[in-house]
Fold this protein.
Amino acid sequence: MTSKFQELKSMKIVPLLIDGKQFPSTSQIFVVFSNKLQRELFLAESADAAAATAAADAASKAFKTWKHTPWTTRRDILLRTADIIQQREDDLKEMMCSETSCTSSYAAFQIEFVISCIREIASRISSMVGEVPNMASPDTIGFIFREALGPILLIAPWNTPIILAGRSLASIIGAGCSVVFKASELSPKTHHMLAEAFIESGVPSGVINVIQTSREDAAVVTETLIAHRAIRKIEFIGSAGVGSKIAQVAAKYLKPVLMEMGDKAAAIILEDANMEQAAATCIFGAYMHHGQICYGTERIILMKSIADDFITILKKKASAFDVGLPVTAAMAKGSHDKLLDARSKGAKFLLGGPQYNEKNALVPTIVTGITKDMVMWNQETFGPSVAVFIVNNDEEAIDLVNDTPYGFSTSIHTTDLTRALNISKELEVGQVQVNANTVYGEANLPCGGIKSTGWGAMNSRWGLEEFTRLKTFTASMSSHKNFASH
C-alpha cells in the first residue's frame, strides 16, 4: 500500500492535482480552519483560471483513451477503490472530523455508505446495455447504445464530503468519463484523500484532476471550467443560491447540468403514528450534523388531534439531543439570523431559539407560527431547528408540503400504508419514506429531487446513465441503396 494518504495528511499546503502531478504553485493560498479544534489546520493552493484550463485540458486528453477502457477494468478499479477506502477509514474519518467538525459516528456512516454506493455502481456498469430496434426496411439493421459523455466538471460540497463526492466520482469514472473535481474549500484534504483512493486503484493520470479555490476566486475559476470546450456536463451539489448562478453560466455555454441543492423537507405525522418513534426520527433528521444536511427535516406537519401530545414528546427528545458543531461560525450565524428574523415577525419558540451553547453551536430549537413573510418559510435554516405546523386533514398537509420552491424528500408516519401511498402521489418531491427519516437513501435507489432542488438522479444505474449519451447506428444491407434512389 502506498504512503500517499500519509503524505497528504502531513502536507502543510494542499496542492492542485492535474494530470497526475502537483500543479506548479499559483502563488495564491487560503487557510483551512477547524471550528472543532479552533485552530488553523493547513493552507491550500487556490486555483486560478490558468490552473482550471490546465485541469480541463488534462481531462480532455485522458478521456480519449479512458473512454475505450473495458468495462471490466472500470468495474475492478471501483471495487478496489471501495476496498482502499475501507482500509483507510481511520485516516479519512480523522480528516473529515477535523475539516468539517462532524462527529466520529457521522464520519463512520459516510465511509460505510460510500463504500456501498461505489460497489453498487461497479456492479451496474455491465448493465448499461443498448437496444436493437425494429427498422422500417427489412434489409436495414440498427443499434442504439450508450457511450461516455466526455469530461465532467464535478463541484462537491463539504457537509457530507465522502458520500456526495465519492458516489459521483464512481459514476463518472464508471461510465468512462474523465473529471475535473472542484473540491470544497472547507474540506480540500478530505476530497484529495478520496480522489487518491481512486488513483491508487488504477485510474490513469489525467482521468481525475482535483483543484480547489478560495471563495473569492470561485466564480472566475468555475466559469473558466464551464466555458472550456472539453467540458461536456456539470454536476453541482450545494446551495440553491450558488446552484442558480452555475445554472445560468451553464446555460450561457449550452452545457447540461446535474444538480442536487436544497430542500424544506417535511415529516407528516398522522393520527395513528407511533408518536415516540416518529418524534425520535424527526429530531434525528432535524438535528444530526448540526442540521447541515440538504434534506434534513425542516418541517413537522401534525394533525390537530395529536398536536399537543406529540409536541410534548418532541420537546423531551429534542432537549436531550447533541446537535454537534457547525462547520464554521459563519454557517451557524446564517441559521441564527433566520431564527432572529422569524422571532422579529411573530414566531414562537417552543424550545431553544436564536442562541448559542457553550461550544458556540446553536441550541436545539422547535419553532411554531412560521408565516410566508419569514425567511424560514422558503429557505433552509441549515441548523438544528425545526418548524411545527398544525393541519386539519390530509389535503392541508399536502398543500403545505408543496408550498415551497423545493422538492426533495418527505416522510409520512402512519400505520395506514394505503393512506400514505395516496398522500405520496400528490407530493411534489423526489422521494417519500413511510415511518423513516427524510434523510434516507440506499445505494441501489435513485437520489434526486424536483423543482428548485435540482435535476437528475444519483446512485446505481441512474447515476451512471447521467454521464452517458445515446448514439444511434444504422446500416443498410444493400450497399447501393440510398435515399436518392427512392
About this structure: The chain has a mean pLDDT of 95.
